Amino acid sequence: MNLPKGPDSLCFDKDVFMKEDFDVDQFVTECRKQVQLEEMREDLEMYYKLLKTAMVELINKDYADFVNLSTNLVGMDKALNQLSVPLGQLREEVMSLRSCVSEVIQAIDNQLSKQEDLQKKKVCVLRLIQVVRSVEKIEKILHSQNSKDSNSLEIGSPLLEGHILERIATEFNQLQFHAVQSKGMPLLDKVRPRIAGITSMLQQSLEGLLIEGLQMSNVDMVRHCLRTYATIDKTRDAEALVGQVLVKPYMDQVIVEEVVKSNPNGLQMMYTRLLEFVPHHCRLLREVTGGAISSDKADTVPGYDFLVNSVWPEMIRGIEERLAYIFNPGNPDIFYERYSISVEFVRRFERQCSSQASVKRLRVHPSYTSFNNKWNLPVYFQLRYKEIAGRLENTINDGLEAAPAGSSYRLQVSEVLWSCLVRCWSNGVYLSPLAHRFWKLTLQQYSRYAKFLVEVLTKTEVPKEPVRPLPSSASSTSSRTSVEEGGSESGGPAFLSTKQLVYIAADVQKLQEQIPELSAMIRQRLEAIGFKNFAVIEDALADSRACLSSSIPSLNSRMTLHLTERCCRFLKSASEVPRLYRRTNKDVPVRASAYMENALQPLHQVLTDSTGSVTPQMAQEWLRVALAECTQKYYETISEVLSSVRKMEESLKRLKQARKGASATTTTGGNGGPSDDGKIRLQLALDVEYLGEQIQKMGLQPSDITMFSTLMDLVKEARELAEQNQ
Predict the structure, then answer these.
(1) Residue 537 banded pLDDT, cuts 50, 70, 90
(2) pLDDT at 27 exceeding the cut of 60
(3) CB within 8 Å of 163: residues ≥ 6 apart
(4) Alpha-carbon distance 541 to 516, whole Å?
(5) 480: Cα separation from own chain's centroid
(6) pTM strictly above 0.70
(7) CA angle, 31 as apex, 25 and 36 as ends, to 5°?
(8) H runs (alpha helix) in 472-550
(9) 601/484 Cα distance (integer angstroms)
């Protein structure tokens, strides 16, 4: 039924009313999300009127049909009653026919069931007959080979020939098949002792024939015997027999704990002798079963793998029982040597297998898995982890000690970090099954080193220096003192010196440069185990590089702050220049003040320490930032001094004018030279010019230093003023 279409402005869809799961509450909730209740009510009333109109139109359209509906149904009851009688008779006839057909079908099913039962019994009887015939046939063959009929099935009967055994095995195979199919039959229970006797005799004869063939190196005898084993589906018994008779005695002779311990290379020698067993003692078996290269494929006996099922289990059983001590991981160096020798022994044994299928069977053999699980590799890694990570952690606890002479690093902790990283992947430590763990340890060491640098750069303090008083003579070189005497570079472990900061930057740069070398080392190891997704490795090493780089901004900030504070302590001495010249009658200054040399000495020291350690660009950036900060503060100091001098000069002039030319308070020299204020301005100008010269000697340009040009303009103006007042 289709509802009439409403206007597009309605807040609901008309089809929602026709849904079987229509719910009023849900409908109201959905509508309220769009409009208010009043508007929803208006829309519903509008659509209600539309429905009423449509219903009236529908009734008017089919009005005649509605009126004639009752008229058309007159006489319908009588017609239906007339049809009910013949329909009832037809139903009775159908039910009767159905009953007859059902009885016939049931009779047929009973006959088929009896026939099927008879067929099963017939097949069972035929199988029992075949069992009896097979037993009689085998006994007849045995009687024909032994004149003593009464002892034909006794255990002590002589060994049968190979071709006779093959005939017996073929018949015995059929006997076994029919006996299994006839399981539970009374007749089979009566024949079972005879079958057991045949089985015992056949097994004894096969074992004796196989042993005799191996001892006599009779290829035909061994081939017949193995074929017979395969015929009766007893290949595993043959392999087990070879393991007990041929392999075990040799293993008991070679795998001796005292012999292995008596020689430093005892384990290697033992493995060599074990590997000699296959070519010396298994040549005949491999030739018969197709395991040898020279064996004729057309005359081989398939289905055997004596190396996997006979030789290997006995080897591993002997090693695990008699040499259990080799699996002890207590000494990681000895454990690594034993494990490496053992893994090479396994690989050489795999190369002796006749095919890739044989190698696959070897690798899924329980003894193969057991041998691999005996090596407690997680414990070995824990010992190596404790050794490698412990060494790095101990060095970190020692702080920023200098690296030994001849090292490519500046700090001992960096030297130890690289040594530990290389050791993770070096011979004598790295084992391929633990590649993922050594890889994780590599990343952890990078992370630990980066965290150590962050701690050092954020928790240690910059050493404080006492502010030195300005020397009594601004031009006396003998009175200048060295910054190093203040002990700023020899603080305790809680302080960082500029040299240590330079060493940190140099080592971080060196470690980043050596990441490709470590990556090549790791790549070589992972390629050996078939790993190919090296993009993941490169991304992780790139993250480690970024982790190391994350400490550089803090280091740069720390370095420039350190240099700025040390330099500014002496640059503040510029405020003492007026005291040196006012009313002291000193000579006109001709060189920079002593405090300038002391103030710039830390910068020269950093430049010297950085040579050959970090890139020149990094060192100059340190100097540029530090000089910019120092110049800013120096400008403020000079500006204050010149302002004070100007105010003093103006005050003296006013005082002089007030006294009308009194000569007692004049600021000029006794010989009519420059005034004290002029000397002060001249000294400051010389200091700033000296700063510009030293900036150039450091490899920078004065224009690179913010505020330096402004500072030069300030002292240039002061110099010109001093020259005018002379």
Answers:
(1) very high
(2) yes
(3) 224
(4) 9
(5) 60
(6) no
(7) 115
(8) 498-513, 515-528, 534-549
(9) 9
- Alpha-carbon distance of 418 to 414, in angstroms, equals 6
- Which residues, including other chains, have CB under 8 Å from residue 326's CB and lie 6 or more apart? 267, 319, 338, 342
Instruction: Output 255 or 198, whichever has higher pLDDT.
Output: 255
Give buried/exposed letters for 227-238 (b at 16+ CB in 10 A, else e): bbbbbbebbeeb
Are residues 226 and 300 in contact, defined by beta-carbon separation less than 8 angstroms?
no
pLDDT confidence of residue 154: 43
The residues, any chain, with a CB within 8 Å of residue 435's CB and separated by 6 or more, are 525, 526, 529, 531
Of 148-157, 266-275, 455-464, 650-659, least confident by mean pLDDT is 148-157
- Report d(CA 694, CA 15) in Å as an integer: 89
Q: Directed axis angle between helix 412-424 and helix 435-459, to 10°?
A: 170
C-alpha–C-alpha distance, residues 512 and 406, integer Å:
20
Q: How far is CA 365 from CA 249, 282, 372, in A?
A: 22, 20, 11
Q: Which two tokens stand for residue 443?
A: 């990343």
Residues 6+ apart with CB under 8 A from 171: 134, 137, 138, 141
CA-closest candidate to residue 318, choices 277, 264, 364, 263: 277
Q: How far apart are CA 660 and CA 574, in angstroms?
A: 34
Counting every residue written for the chain, the total comes to 726
| Helix pair angle (594-610, 616-658), 10° resolution | 170
| Average confidence score pLDDT of the chain | 81
Rounded to whole angstroms, the Cα distance separating 206 from 11 reads 94
Tokens of 347: 């690989």
Lowest mean pLDDT among 476-485, 487-496, 606-615, 686-695: 476-485
Query: What value does the mean pLDDT take over residues 62-66?
Result: 74
* Whole-number Å distance between alpha carbons of 320 and 314: 10
The Cα–Cα gap between 194 and 349 comes to 45
CA distance 192 to 198: 10
User: How much is the pLDDT for 184?
Assistant: 63
Q: Is 411 helix (H, G, I), strand (E, B) or coil?
A: strand
8 A C-beta contact, residue 570 and residue 599 = yes
pLDDT at position 104 is 92
Cα(504)–Cα(601) distance, rounded to whole angstroms?
Answer: 21
Q: Using CB atoms within 10 Å of the CB of residue 211, give its burial: 0 to 12 exposed, 13 to 18 middle, 19+ buried.
A: middle
By the 8 A CB rule, do 442 and 421 touch?
yes
Are residues 505 and 511 in contact, defined by beta-carbon separation less than 8 angstroms? no
CB count in 10 Å sphere of residue 15: 9
**Domain 379-574 = CATH 1.20.120:** no
With the C-alpha atoms ordered 176, 180, 184, 187, is the resulting torsion angle positive or negative? Answer: negative
Class of residue 693 by CB neighbours under 10 A (exposed 0-12, middle 13-18, buried 19+)? exposed
Q: Which long-range contacts (CB under 8 A, 24 or more apart) does 163-167 make?
A: 163/224, 165/202, 165/205, 165/206, 165/209, 165/224, 165/225, 165/228, 166/224, 166/227, 166/228, 166/231, 167/141
Under a CB-based contact definition with an 8 Å cutoff, are residues 193 and 184 in contact? Answer: no
Q: Which two tokens mark 308?
A: 């996997």
Would you list the DSSP string of 51-84? HHHHHHHHHHHTHHHHHHHHHHTTTHHHHHHHHH
Residue whose tokens read 């060599």: 272
Question: H helices within 217-325, ranges in order?
Answer: 219-231, 235-242, 248-254, 257-262, 266-275, 277-281, 283-289, 306, 312-322
Q: Which residues pair with 461 in a beta bridge?
A: 495
Copy the structure tokens of residue 511.
Answer: 């470690």
